Amino acid sequence: MFSKFTSILQHAVEALAPSLPLQEDFVYHWKAITHYYIETSDDKAPVTDTNIPSHLEQMLDILTQEERERESGETGPCMEYLLHHKILETLYTLGKADCPPGMKQQVLSFYTKLLGRIRQPLLPHINVHRPVQKLIRLCGEVLAAPTENEEIQFLCTVCAKLKQDPYLVNFFLENKTKKLEASKDGGAGLVKEDPFSPDTGQNRNQTPSLVTSTLEAAACQATSPGEASPSPVHSTLPNNDNYNLVSSLLNLTKSPVSAACEGLMLVVSLPEPAAAKCLTENTELSQLLTDRLAQFYRALPQSMDPLDIETVESVNWGYMTSNLEDAAAFAGKRALISFLSWLDYCLFASLTYFAIELEHQCFELNSKKAFPSHPYSHSFSNLSHSRSEVGILTSTALLNRIIRQVTSEALLQETVYFLLGEETGPETLAGITQHPLRHRLIEHCDHLSDEISIMTLRLFEHLLQKPCQHILQNLVLRCLEERNYIENKQQEEREEREHMENDLEEDPLFSDLSPDNRLSSPDWLSCSPPPSTEHTKPDGKTEVHKIVNSFLCLVPDEAKSSYQVEGTGYDTYLRDAHRQFRDYCGVCQRWDWRSSPKSFEKCNLDSPFFEGHFLKVLFDRMGRILDQPYDVNLQVTSVLSKLSLLPHAHLHEYLLDPYINLAPGCRSLFSVIVRVVGDLMLRTHHIPEFTPKLLLVRKRLLGLEPEGMSVDHVTLLEGVIVLEEFCKELAAIAFVKFHASVSTSPDPLATVHRKQTDE
To answer: Which residue ranges does the record assign to the FHF complex subunit HOOK-interacting protein C-terminal domain (predicted)?
Structure first.
């Protein structure tokens, strides 16, 4: 009580006293602080009961005023005094001893305000960055400490200053080897130095017991005049360079207060190669990112509604500090948002990290070390072992959400390697179980549970749209490299194609299609952009109008219903196909894919062909389109259309060319659909009033007819509708890809990319 009265009285005296020059006023306040330690013997009174906070604030105000009154970049006498008399060093020692109690909090606040308010660069001064470096080591030593907020604010301020001048980070990369040598040479040098000698002129022997007990006790923990011994947390780092700024921030991120993450993000984004290398090799940042991700995943409920997982609002890592008022909207929402927020933080960190690595190609970043994928192995192991449909569905939905959210190239690559493996060589039927998780995920595309099948197919659809070449190579392309799905009779190729075309015209499946019912070349061209005058490509590929007609005429007229409903024509698919193909070309342009198939002379056509586990499951599903639920069929055809859009010559040939001579025992997308159509024609004859029922089901699916009496054979009727629409979509994709390939540019990918830029 008496001390507070003294503080008020002193403020009143200072207000009435005549103003002194800034330097004298500054020295007065500093000496008032030092005299407190000389004259006071009570070391238990909190610092808030003293005048120390007021004097520190006055010193800051003087330094700020001095800078305002001087030209930019000019150092005033008060700042010179602070630097020359090592005031920050002394404050660090007092803060470390925390004497009087609460002094550490005051020192942290003083450092933070000094660095934040003063515009001129202070960190390059040795008498600034050295005590700042020491104070950094004091941060994060104790979790949930009373000074935690001040520690985070101080560290984030230092990070912000380094962000402004990234080269300064080199002052904060410490070398332990040099530190040990300095310790041997210098001994306990700081103990011999009186922190107050430049300011008060007092001899240490004349200093009362409070100064002796606090300052010497704090100083004795140092090993050299310029360096303090590393804390146990820091000494566990593997190499000689310490990055104490990161280590302190990492310790503070373990606290519920997550503002330290902002400081870490600033440090990660520093464009200094040495700092980036030290961050990768000498800190536990990657361990923190992955361990925390696994921790948040384990906190999720065992079962969640997949719709809740998919539709929860987009989150970013700043959400971690938000007040989740609607966290009770569904069970587990708070845990889910925490998980997705930390995932976003990992993604943002890896994106920034990789951008710096690409800008400075002076060291090789090991992405596996920087951002390992081991949290996935803990988190999604139940996909391989769980027999619970609810557990599989929840894990698949979460994995689907993760894949949608992952944009970092490094993390995406590690995620893909974890899910699919790193294999790129030809796939064999005996080797499909080589990577258990990949095998299980593909098998789940044909699960007994339609929900699991749809969710897993959706997962693969999102994977196919990611800018990662390994996904396509691993799932599909490695099986088509040798083109051994084609019969090895090159000399009869043209004759066989003509023969197949004639067979197609005479086939009973198409006997009801007169030439008038076929879509003539002028008709389909009128729905599309102006084509090239040449309909046959120089390499002898089948004329595109024949391919388009082949797909459009696969479904017989009596099984078609789209022509009776407005707005469901072929032209709508053309517009969508053009847009999607353009987007895919933009993604695939940097992958150096061949624009024409590999020549037969270089192909091993005699090796046995296996379509691959992924295509096998998709073709099997496609073959059962008449007996599967509508939603399953939509998802299967959606994945197949995404594959068909890819601008890869072999994939295009295998999926979109009906006239290739398939090797014995091989099947293609077209041949699978032909078998489905054959089954359809046999079954339609046993369904009375097939055409009216088909039209009614289509109108109900489009919302043009209300739900009324149930219709028998509704699964088959819905399958027929999906089949018709899918054939139109494939025809549109074939035309759009042909149109791009016959443009004036030799590279269709470049052509489409240029058109996108022009638009």
So the answer is: 611-703
